[in-house]
Design brief:
Number of domains: 5
CATH class of the largest domain: Alpha Beta
Bound molecules: adenosine-5'-diphosphate
Structural class: alpha+beta
Largest sheet: 5 strands, antiparallel
CATH topology of the largest domain: Beta-Lactamase
């Protein structure tokens, strides 16, 4: 666009050229006219100079009328020899009979006495009128002036023709003088034209300089550089144009800044939106994509640019661009794979001009993964709770029915039946209590009663209770046998916890370890610390947990073996509650397990080392 202008294409050159041509034409016309006039004048003067004096004329007339021809011819020759006119090349005197009576040219003396051959001379003798002509002699390349004048003798009233004088004069001096003038004139006009051209270049550069500056400034504006200003040289049209260019530059800059600010505002709105936004052109190719959308769809905005929205959303095949344009309902886009769940709702709307012309499409992506998960969890939870409660209730009802039908009279069966109903009711109460505490933790209404506790002591205390239980059941043959091994750090670990809740967690894990351990299994309880946390672990030698279930072990109502868990009075909520509690205390709970070998449950809690000295001093 901004091609360098060639000098010969510039206005600058054109103005100078026109100026020079004008000068040249003027000189041509003036020169032609002037030279023509000069030539005419010069020839006129020349003619006057070549005219013979009246003395010569009269003498010639006198001699021509003489009867003594020989003497007359001698007189004529003398006369012609005396005629000293440098312009005249030849004078010939002819009598009325056409006989040459004298010739000024020494070489032409033999012509004397002979008839003149020139037809013009004959014509003059016949017409008795002066004849003049300008001729060009090819033999010597010279121009000549020829004049043939009739000679009359004055006698009485009538003039009698006595002869004629043929006169030939070279015009070369006149023409060479004219040539000199012409040369001077041409040289002068060329010099004038040259000077005129230089002057024109200077003047036109004064005109084109501001134009050139404006050209440069406008191309700078086009490039987006508004810093420059065109210099204003005067108040003429160019000055006004320069002013207009400067104003334009300011206006364009303002407009550019405004639209830039608008774009930044839009960018910041888009980038801070929690929803993904994609804008496309008329053909559905992505032109803008905000960060959220690029994160949701896991594609770089730069890569997405220019691609079809159908490919970006991976909905080609299900929808066409026409579907999106015509029917702007929401679309559910499921991007889930085995390890990652992601569901997006896509809402479409058109970008339409006032004329109704559709210039693009805007797609808003709303991540509904969490919402869908919560919905699903809630449904599952309700169905689980109903299921969990229905089973014990059905069994309670069947026992009560049996009792009602008369079993109550049977002193053998009735107590057993009643025991079962009581156990089932207890389990239901436990379950409802568990659910209540979970719901309290969910809603955030569960209060923690934190206190600084010596964890070694607390852990020992809990395990002591299990040892005691074991001792109490020693005589019960049916009771499961197990032993508890303790492997504690020597260091006293003080941590801030809610003792009751924490005891519940350890109870839970210990009960599970016992429940799922084989008879006579060893349960190893460890307590150790790192510089920022304490770690408790409880390992059993039980049946372990299948790998696929490990991720779900802390889910509500999850059990590896539902029947077995229920038979042992489990609610399937113990580990879920434990997890909530540990997390409320800022810790973590996890499990490592090998099927048929055993499981180890770990609990880590945040821990700050207390300076022992501090205690000593205190
Ligand atoms: P439950 O009341 O069924 O014990 P939990 O939430 O305490 O409920 O445990 C959930 C499930 O985790 C149990 O049903 C069981 O399948 C599995 N589980 C828990 N602890 C162990 C363990 N130490 N060994 C093997 N499986 C276990």
């Amino acid at each position: 666009m901004n091609k360098k202008l060639h000098f010969f294409q510039s206005i600058h050159f054109k103005i100078a050229l026109v100026f020079a041509l004008l000068l040249l034409i003027t000189f041509q016309i003036v020169g032609a006219y002037f030279l023509q006039q000069l030539k005419r004048e010069d020839i006129k003067t020349f003619k006057q100079q070549t005219e013979l004096s009246s003395y010569v004329d009269n003498s010639l007339i006198h001699n021509l009328t003489k009867s003594n021809i020989q003497q007359a011819d001698d007189n004529i020759r003398d006369l012609l020899e005396d005629t000293n006119n440098s312009n005249i090349t030849e004078i010939q005197v002819v009598d009325t009979k056409g006989t040459v009576r004298g010739d000024s040219d020494v070489n032409n003396q033999d012509l004397v006495g002979q008839k003149a051959t020139d037809s013009d001379i004959k014509q003059v003798l016949y017409n008795a009128k002066t004849y003049t002509k300008l001729t060009y002699d090819r033999s010597d390349n010279k121009r000549y002036y020829v004049s043939i004048t009739p000679l009359f003798s004055a006698g009485g009233n009538t003039n009698t023709l006595v002869g004629a004088v043929y006169l030939r004069a070279s015009l070369e001096p006149v023409y060479s003088a004219l040539n000199k003038v012409t040369t001077i004139f041409v040289t002068a006009s060329l010099i004038a034209t040259g000077l005129g051209m230089i002057l024109a270049i200077l003047i036109s550069s004064a005109i084109t300089k501001p134009i050139d500056e404006m050209k440069k400034q406008t191309s700078r504006i086009a490039r987006g550089d508004y810093s420059g200003q065109v210099q204003i040289y005067g108040q003429d049209e160019l000055g006004q144009l320069a002013q207009a260019v400067n104003n334009l530059s300011i206006r364009v800059e303002e407009a550019q800044e405004a639209s830039e600010a608008e774009r930044r505002r839009l960018d910041s709105v888009l980038s801070h939106m929690s929803d993904g936004v994609i804008a496309t052109d008329r053909r559905g190719n992505v032109i803008i994509m905000n960060e959220t959308a690029s994160e949701d769809l896991d594609i770089d905005a730069n890569i997405a640019e220019g691609q079809s929205i159908l490919d970006i959303l991976n909905i080609r095949g299900r929808y066409t661009l026409r579907d999106l344009l015509e029917n702007q309902d929401e679309i559910v886009i499921d991007l889930s794979d085995e390890n990652h769940e992601q569901i997006l709702n896509a809402y479409f709307s058109l970008i339409q001009r006032e004329s109704g012309f559709i210039s693009g499409l805007v797609c808003v992506l709303h991540d509904v993964t969490e919402q869908q998960r919560i919905d699903r969890d809630r449904r599952e939870f309700v169905s689980n709770v109903s299921h969990e409660l229905r089973t014990p209730l059905t069994s309670v009802r069947s026992y009560i029915e049996a009792l009602n039908d008369g079993a109550w009279k049977d002193s053998q069966v009735a107590p057993k039946f009643l025991k079962v109903t009581q156990d089932e009711t207890d389990r239901m109460i436990r379950m409802i209590n568990d659910l209540l505490s979970l719901s309290r933790m969910d809603s955030g209404t569960a209060k923690l009663e934190l206190e600084l506790v010596n964890l070694n002591e607390l852990y020992n205390y809990i395990l002591d209770r299990f040892d005691m239980m074991l001792k109490n059941q020693q005589h019960n043959k049916k009771a499961k046998k197990y032993s508890i091994k303790r492997d504690f750090t020597r260091r006293e670990l003080w941590v801030e916890i809610d003792t009751d809740k924490f005891m519940q967690v350890i109870d839970n894990i210990m009960n599970n370890a016992i429940k799922y351990s084989p008879d006579g299994g060893v349960i190893t309880c460890r307590l150790l610390e790192t510089h920022s946390q304490v770690i408790l672990s409880i390992s059993d030698q039980g049946l372990g947990i299948p790998k696929k279930d490990i991720a779900h072990i802390f889910d509500r109502f999850f059990r590896v073996d539902k029947a077995r868990s229920r038979a042992q009075g489990g609610t399937g909520l113990g580990l879920a509650i434990s997890k909530e509690v540990v997390e409320m205390l800022g810790g973590k709970i996890w499990v490592e397990s090998i099927e048929n070998k055993g499981s180890t449950f770990y609990i880590s809690l945040p821990y700050e080392e207390y300076e022992e000295d501090l205690w000593d001093e205190g």
